[in-house]
Amino acid sequence: MNIINTILSVGAVKPFRVIHISDTHLTYADMRDGKRKVDLAEKRKKYPGEAEHILDFAHLYSKENGLPIVHTGDLIDFVSIANLEAAKRFTDQNDCFMAAGNHEFSLYVGEAKEDAAYRNQSLRSVQSVFKNDIRMSSRMIGGVNFVALDNGYYLFEEEQLDFLKAEVDKALPIVLLLHTPFYEPELYERMMKSKPCAYLLGVPESLMQGYPPDRFEQQKADEITCKALEYIKNQPQIKAIIAGHLHFNYEGMFDEHIPQIVTSRSDVRIIEFV
To answer: What are the sequence ranges of the domains in the chain?
Structure first.
């Protein structure tokens, strides 16, 4: 595990820090959910102990330094009673602000098309273990408005765009917390070197022609998502984007003027806002 120190200029009244972690992918299950879920947990334990190490470190660092934790999704790898219990313990014990990832609502990883209907099968039970609305919510930290939006399915919904517009109307500097990073040419090229698709939101369709058909359908931006991206590009109050999903560290620029920070699943980033 690395500790990464990052400074973001957002127009804060005075400097402050937060802890950013993402994609911890807890893989707990027991027979309360049945043998199939227990087998899934065993299959999905790719990095035993890593998630626990990251969460324990973030917990201790937060307590010792009085810093809030921002988590950009996939805290759990799939929905299970044991995973939700572990997520609740972490959020109960910490000052944690959360944006959902796609795995927050995954019943059995990769078994079905992920869309709103699929998400809504588990939304109520998953939401019950988190303090903030993990689909869309905001929180003031150090005079900066942190706005968390669930874009884990590579889309924004109309109610999320309306919510963001209302947050912009508050006339405060905004930091967006997202699970899926936005398309950047450099980030796209990096992903396509080793993946069949870029796993980014808002990739131009001309650059998606080589995607597998299922990934093209999954990651193609719809009308509302395109409107949201254009809106974000043109709001000077939106000062930075913090995301996860890719499982590696990255610092770039969305639309060449909004800093975009991605933190890996195996590291902790301490971000100072100035």
So the answer is: 3-273
Rounded distance between C-alpha atoms, residue 195 and residue 227, angstroms = 27
pLDDT digits (tens, 9 = 90+) for 49-76: 899 999 999 999 999 999 999 999 999 9
pLDDT single digits (tens) 170-207: 999 999 999 999 999 999 999 999 999 999 999 999 99
Amino acid at 92: D
Distance CA 210, CA 218 (A): 14
Pick from 37, 110, 100: nearest CA to 245: 100
CATH architecture of the domain 3-273 equals: 4-Layer Sandwich (3.60)
Q: Which of 83, 91, 184, 171 is nearest to 131 (CA)?
A: 91
Whether 181 contacts 22, CB under 8 Å: no
Residue type, position 258, single letter: I
Q: How far apart are CA 199 and CA 101, in angstroms?
A: 13
d(CA 12, CA 124): 35
Separation CA 216–CA 213 (nearest Å) = 5
Whole-angstrom distance, CA of residue 264 vs CA of residue 2: 10
- Residue 240 CB-half CA count within 13 A: 22
- 237 φ/ψ sector (left φ>0, alpha ψ -120 to 50, else beta): alpha
